[in-house]
Amino acid sequence: MQHLLLLHGALGSKDQMEPLATALHNSYQIHTFNFSGHGGRPFPEKNLSIPLFSEQIAEYLQESGIEQTNIFGYSMGGYAAMYLAKHLPAKVNKLVTLATKFHWDEKTAAREVKMLDGNIIREKVPAFAAQLQERHAPNDWLVLLDKTRQLLTALGNNNTLQPEDYATITTPSLVLLGDRDKMVTLEETLAVYKQLPNARFGVLPGTPHAFEQVNLSLLAFLIDGFIRERA
Asked: What angle is formed at CA 213 by the lines to CA 23 and CA 193, rounded to 5 degrees?
């Protein structure tokens, strides 16, 4: 049975992947883990970054005795997995991303950072604030917000993967986007898809950015079909 690693996004945790894991557990050996600072995992000494998250994927695989795995990465998790596929391609059999924002510049980062104001979140969406507090305990979710803002600002100043990098990523990839995603554009997703030499592209209907609003039956069907597809 093949391995399948499910990766959460920024401000998420491995618990969010459990419904998808349940949908696929009969077909794969499912793995999940928390990136640093997420889901109660301690904050690292260094800043949060895509290379750091990629290193943590590789460390998890090594600690689990997994030489190669399929990966599904949601949002930031997809970016970290794509970075891993570029630098350690032998580790990744097939890669599926959903709602991954690949294009970052100063303007984009500033817009996203503005949405990560803890005071505004507590005032405008207190239920989300409570959810973040519970999800990341015993870590302070406000500290995670601050470190995530630093991560996004750094991406805006120097995007970790440049457009030309994708042409060197030969891992078979399925790049997915929800048609109602207001964070990730169709244009940036298509641009990456067209650069990847061995990729498929798909759009999930009626699907916004939030993972909790994804049709998991459809997503599981697409992931499974792509992994089983013969080269």
From this structure: 80
HSE of 42 in the Cβ direction (CA atoms, 13 Å)? 3
| Domain CATH for 58 | 3.40.50.1820
Q: Where are the alpha helices (DSSP H) in the chain?
A: 18-24, 50-63, 76-87, 106-114, 118-124, 126-136, 141-157, 186-195, 216-228
Tens digits of residue pLDDT in 89-109: 999 999 999 999 999 999 999
Question: What token pair was written down for 9?
Answer: 């996004």
C-alpha to C-alpha distances, 89 to 73, 93, 125, 170, nearest whole angstrom: 15, 8, 40, 8
For tokens 């599904």, what's the residue? 72
Residue 114 belongs to a domain: no
Let me know if 171 is exposed, middle or buried by CB neighbors in 10 A (0-12, 13-18, 19+): buried
- Average pLDDT of the segment spanning 35-44: 97
Question: Residue-wise over 29-50: b if at least 16 C-beta within 10 A, else e?
Answer: ebbbbbbbbbbebeebeeebbb
Residue 185 lies in a domain: yes
Q: Are 40 and 143 in contact (CB under 8 A)?
A: no
Read off the tokens for 186: 């169709």
118-146-82 Cα angle (round to 5): 120
Strands across the sheet containing 3-7: 29-32, 3-7, 69-74, 92-98, 173-178, 199-204
113 assigned to some structural domain: no
Asked if residue 75 is part of any domain, the answer here is yes
- Which pTM was predicted? 0.96
Domain assignment of residue 186, given as a range: 3-103+160-228
Total domains in the fold of the chain: 1
For residue 73, the cross-strand partners are 7, 97
